[in-house]
Amino acid sequence: MELKYNRIDNYFSEVISKYFKNIEEIQILEIGCGERSCFNDTELNVIAIDKSEVKIQKAKSVNNNGMISFLNYSIFDVELEDDIDLVADPHCLHCLTGEDIHSALGIINTALKSNGILASEVMISHSNMKFDDMDLLFDSPRLLYQHGNKVEQIRTILSANDWEELLSENGFKIEEFIVFEQFNFSAHPYREQSLQTDPQVLRFIAKKSLQ
What's the pLDDT score for residue 167? Predict the structure, then answer.
């Protein structure tokens, strides 16, 4: 079944319905939940983390799901082992550096139960990608944002092939891997409207491999 492009919370709901039978029993880790959990309107067991305390407090204030535990954690604060059925990534991984993505995938693999699932949406590079914003610099695969005298990395934009290799190297078997060429992420932190020259959307579902 090919997953059609839809809202990220609906996407995660489809993943759960397809890959889990007793959904009321599964444990979910949502990494980078931002100001609103993708599981806000469910009754699922969720640990929702974000490194921003402001965003965690905002997410708590709009939450409708009493089964969510909100924690002001980054992915690197997670110390779980064989505890999680689903790790949901609504745009956390591509905000890390290349080396940190490796580390994060290792942490996620350790946290997952046998045959646990990682579902993610990330931005990826493509042949027509370019950045005309004066304050964005692309030093592949790093997207840099210049403000004042400061330059900081805000995204890592890998290719689809890079993601396939990363997942394999970190003990995952890809179950679904869909590039939405007609949809783009706005690469600029303060530009909501996406352009065709912005990075494309990749959604993947990867299962923890039994070594």
Answer: 97
Query: Which residue carries 């909100």 as its tokens?
Result: 70
The DSSP bridge partners found for residue 151 are 146
CB 80 within 8 A of CB 111: yes
Asked if 207 and 117 touch (Cβ cutoff 8 Å), the reply is yes
pLDDT in tens, 28-77: 999 999 999 999 999 999 999 999 999 999 999 999 999 999 999 999 99
Q: What is the per-residue pLDDT across 91-102, written as a single tens digit (0 to 9) for each?
A: 999 999 989 999
* Tokens, residue 136: 């964005």
Tell me how far apart the alpha carbons of residues 63 and 14 are, in angstroms, rounded to a whole number: 21
Q: How far apart are CA 197 and CA 128, in angstroms?
A: 6
What's the per-residue H, E or C state across the chain?
CCCCCCCHHHHHHHHHHHHCCCHHHCEEEEECCCCCCCCCCCCCEEEEECCCHHHHHHHHHCCCCCCEEEECCCHHHCCCCCCEEEEEEECCHHHCCHHHHHHHHHHHHHHEEEEEEEEEEEEECCCCCCCCCCCEEEECCEEEEEECCEEEEEEECECHHHHHHHHHHCCEEEEEEEEEEEEECCCCCCCCCCCCCCCEEEEEEEEECCC
Can you read off the two tokens belonging to residue 171? 């003990």
Contact 125, 199 (CB under 8 A): yes
Report yes or no: 158 and 124 within 8 Å, Cβ to Cβ: yes
